[in-house]
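Let us work through a complete example step by step.
Step 1: write down the sequence.
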Amino acid sequence: METFKDILAFLDAPLITLGQSSVTIWTLLVAASVLILLGYLTSKLNRLIIYRLMSKSDIQLGVRVAVASLVRYVVLVIALIVVLQFMGIDMTSLALLFGALGVGIGFGLQNITNNFVSGLIILLERPIKVGDRIEMGGVSGDVTHISMRATTIRTNDNISMIVPNSDFITSTVINWSHTDRNVRFNFPVSVSYREDPERVRALLLDVARENKGVLVTPPPDVLFKEYADSAIVLNLRVWTRNFIDRPGVLKSQLYYAIFRKFREQGVEIPYPQRDVHIKDMPGAASTVAPAGAAAREPFDKDAAAPDGDRS
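Step 2: predict the structure and record it as tokens.
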């Protein structure tokens, strides 16, 4: 019995005194046990929300994870307050300390908090989502991962860019596949003024229909763009889904095919031409000899010198 009483006395011995409240080893053990149990239960609740309650909805997995994580954090914060009250710690006595600490953490973690809130906005409003083709700051790529702090973009060169979420909220982002992955590209083509535009239009449409990456619906079309200095400029417009992340490849395929088609059909591809007109300036010396004037023969020193004086 004495040993049991000694153990109880040891557990009830105060470790920390905050005002009129004392923290003992027993309260610390109980609080730690409760927090561990709550951590386990909230992790189960997290999985239940993600894979059971919201599994049949159309909400993206990233949004479900964000909502479940937010619920878990709220439950843990409430549980922590209850545990502190159970330990006999008066929260009003810690209000000043937590307030000062919160201000310091707020200034130190301002960017992190901004990115965290921006990540929640992205996951809930979904201006971008995993798999979208976006362009931002002159760099284009596919969104591969969206976390609470940053978003990962993979370029065509297989380079991953880690962009803070706040940049997507404060900057202009071009989303090529926001509604669907069908996009239209424009490719200008120049031909000589000797060619018939209707005939060239038919050839360009044949080239577009022969390419497997060009969609049949909506169909490709050709617009008469302009009369340029040395050529007629037509604009080939095609719709594609497969080349949304490789527009340069589609452009190269079509231009190769257009060049072959033009060469087979004898279509002339123009080159820049300039006509230069030279005018005589007023008062300038004329370079034309007067009428009737004898043309001067080139001076021959040997012919002009007397015989015997040629040296």
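Step 3: interpret the result. Residues 183-265 form a domain with the Alpha-Beta Plaits fold (CATH 3.30.70.100).
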